[in-house]
Amino acid sequence: MVLSESFVNYSRSRDLSYSEVACVTVLTWDVLVTLSEEIDLIWRRRGWTPAKILYYIARYLPWLFQLALLAINVNGTTGLAFTSSQCATWQVVQGVLLQVIVTTVDVILVTRVYALYSRNRYLLLLLGSLFLAELTSLCYILVVVTPRLTYNDECYVTSSPSVFQYYWMISLAFETVLFVLTIVKFFDAVKQGWGKGPIMQQFVTDGTWAYTLIFLVMLVNMMLYKYVHSTLTGICYTWLLVVMSFAGSRLVLNPRRSSASYYNSTYGSELEMSHMSSFGHFSPRARDLGPGIMVTIERITDEPEWGKA
């Protein structure tokens, strides 16, 4: 009986290790396939804009985190052993890094919605209040949950307190609010005649698949932490890191690619994009481009400038 239980635990640890290897492989592949676009649209842009900082955090922090998890946990082959206090410290580190990653992606999503609504200050106040409430709640839950996690000798989480489910529920609720606001604005834009432009279509498409991926992975994590009490409890934790990196980076890259392609073909200028807005905030020459949404220009590296006569 003891031998059978040991074999089951070993098998579960092995499956979790295989999952972590798969996560690192997928994320490394994703980093490599977007590297050329990243160089053109991120690295070569002058200065350190908020969008660039958010991109680097969303893109590389989950990847580095995954590599650390891989080095520490790969099926016990690293030869590393941990005391109970070391495992507790490592769980705290994981909790902090998870919250930084989730918060970064949330800021990207909030910025997109704020820009979509033409920088409406009242909406920003509402979203800012919801965001702070979400952030405070998530941090509090992590503080309560982390000391009460149980784990095995390899520092794999085997069970969590029931309150941990609220971490996922609050995150899902906030993501849903942002998604609903995006869809509402999209239908409003379609009625006004500027919702079928390529940039708007790309904007809504990115928001939809990003929301769907994040929602599904968070939902699966919530179910696993609630109902599974074994080494497999956290098997989808690393997949959440993959999804956050994948979604967060593309929510910054894709609008830049679409906008740079459109405006470079129109003006032959390299543009630094900061946010989306309706044409109503621009000069007459910008409005002459026709119905649609566009990207506010933060910097133009060559002529012409729209504000000039």
Please tell me about this protein's structure.
The structure is a single chain. It contains 9 helices and 4 strands; from the N terminus they run αααααββαααβαβ. Helices cover about 70% and strands about 5% of the residues. The longest helix is centred in the N-terminal third of the chain and has 33 residues. The strands form 2 sheets. Strands 1-2 form a two-stranded antiparallel sheet. With about 300 residues, the protein is mainly alpha-helical. The protein is globular, with a radius of gyration of 22 Å. A hairpin with a 5-residue loop joins strand 1 and strand 2. The chain has a single domain, classed as Rhopdopsin 7-helix transmembrane proteins. The C terminus is likely disordered. The termini are far apart. It comes from Lentinus brumalis. This is DUF6533 domain-containing protein. Keywords: Membrane, Transmembrane, Transmembrane helix.
Helices and strands in order:
Blueprint: H1 2-33, H2 35-43, H3 50-73, H4 84-116, H5 121-145, E1 150-151, E2 157-159, H6 165-192, H7 198-227, H8 237-267, E3 271-278, H9 284-287, E4 293-300
Helix pairs in contact: 1-3, 1-8, 2-8, 3-4, 3-8, 4-5, 4-6, 4-8, 5-6, 6-7, 7-8
Low-confidence stretches: 265-309
- Here the CATH topology equals Rhopdopsin 7-helix transmembrane proteins
Distance between the termini: 85 Å
Integer count of domains:
1
The DSSP helix count reads 9
Overall CATH architecture: Up-down Bundle
